[in-house]
């Protein structure tokens, strides 16, 4: 896989800054202490392990952030850090809202990329994964419009794109948490592997290999799961939308500074 066209030679990366929303914060890859890990932390740990020391990592992502908030709160601090690697994933929260100005989303995403690309060694953008189901189908046209624009930005600014959207495995509901919005730990592990390979590192696993066949749950089990989802996740989400609140309100990034990271610091 490392010799496929379009995959660059492995860069020297001694610093990494991740920007975005809940996907990059690491939900729902929950650790025993209640915090979230996620693909960016996993990737940082692997990059740190590949160095002889001195690796630094910052994760500015906060759950619920829209692209306007990423542009105003994260892009400038990240650009000032001058990291070897910057990842930016944003805009999907906007596209999944009933009222969305896609022109504004594109403009803000372009603003972020134009600010970050000249101030880092390598910028990585993503076509985000999507879970199978009616929600994705409802917003598919917007998502594909966003991802086409991401491809255009990458070509213009020399960024790399990790295409998670077309990976059939990452749409498998078994890789998504009970909230149906965030990946499981295994889903995040596969994303970390995808970015690792896109950076030119040798494959350690086939991140897009299908999960083993599994017996379909019964009609009753599916209805019980739907009821639990509505009670525990959908109703609170609707309440936040109606009140204008976000799950990230008042929440600070988990790693706001570009600080030293030893490979053992991330589980």
Compressed to H and E, one letter per element, the order equals EHHEHEHHEHEHHE
Shape: globular
Give the N-to-C terminal Cα separation: 26 Å
Helix/sheet category: alpha/beta
Total DSSP helices? 8
Biggest β-sheet: strands ordered side by side in the sheet: 5-4-3-1-2-6
Fold-level CATH name: Rossmann fold
**Poorly predicted tracts of residues:** 1-5
Average pLDDT works out at 87
Q: What proportion of the residues form beta strands (DSSP E)?
A: 5-15%
The CATH class name reads Alpha Beta
| Domain unit count | 1
Largest sheet, strands/sense/barrel: 6 strands, mixed
Helix content: 40-55%
CATH homologous superfamily designation = SGNH hydrolase
Computed over alpha carbons, the radius of gyration is 18 Å
What this model shows, in words?
This protein is of the alpha/beta class. The protein has one domain: SGNH hydrolase (Rossmann fold), CATH 3.40.50. It has a six-stranded mixed β-sheet with strand order 5-4-3-1-2-6, with helices on both faces. Helix 6 (134-157) links the parallel strand 4 (122-127) and strand 5 (160-163). Residues 1-5 have low confidence and may be disordered. It has helices spanning 22-25, 39-49, 67-81, 92-95, 102-116, 134-157, 185-198, 219-243, and strands spanning 15-19, 56-59, 85-88, 122-127, 160-163, 255-260. Helix 2 (39-49) packs across helix 7 (185-198), helix 3 (67-81) runs parallel beside helix 5 and helix 5 (102-116) packs parallel to helix 6 (134-157).
């Amino acid at each position: 896989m490392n010799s496929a066209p379009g995959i660059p030679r492995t860069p020297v990366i001694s610093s990494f800054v991740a920007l975005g929303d809940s996907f990059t914060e690491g939900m729902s890859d929950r650790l025993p202490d209640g915090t979230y890990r996620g693909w960016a932390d996993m990737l940082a740990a692997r990059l740190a392990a590949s160095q002889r020391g001195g690796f630094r990592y910052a994760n500015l992502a906060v759950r619920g952030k829209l692209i306007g908030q990423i542009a105003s709160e994260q892009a400038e601090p990240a650009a000032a850090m001058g990291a070897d690697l910057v990842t930016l994933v944003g805009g999907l929260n906007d596209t999944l809202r009933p009222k969305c100005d896609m022109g504004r989303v594109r403009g803000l995403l372009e603003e972020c990329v134009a600010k970050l690309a000249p101030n880092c060694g390598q910028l990585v953008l993503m076509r985000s994964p999507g879970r199978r189901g009616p929600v994705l189908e409802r917003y598919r046209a917007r998502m594909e419009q966003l991802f086409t624009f991401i491809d255009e930005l990458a070509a213009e600014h020399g960024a790399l794109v990790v295409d998670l959207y077309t990976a059939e495995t990452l749409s498998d509901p078994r890789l998504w948490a009970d909230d149906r919005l965030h990946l499981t730990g295994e889903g995040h592990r596969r994303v970390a592997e995808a970015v690792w390979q896109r950076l030119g590192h040798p494959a350690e696993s086939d991140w897009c290999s299908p999960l083993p066949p599994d017996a379909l749950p019964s009609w009753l089990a599916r209805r019980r799961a739907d009821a639990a989802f509505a009670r525990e996740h959908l109703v609170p989400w609707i309440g936040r939308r109606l009140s204008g609140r976000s799950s990230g309100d008042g929440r600070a990034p988990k790693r706001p500074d570009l600080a030293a990271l030893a490979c053992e610091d991330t589980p």
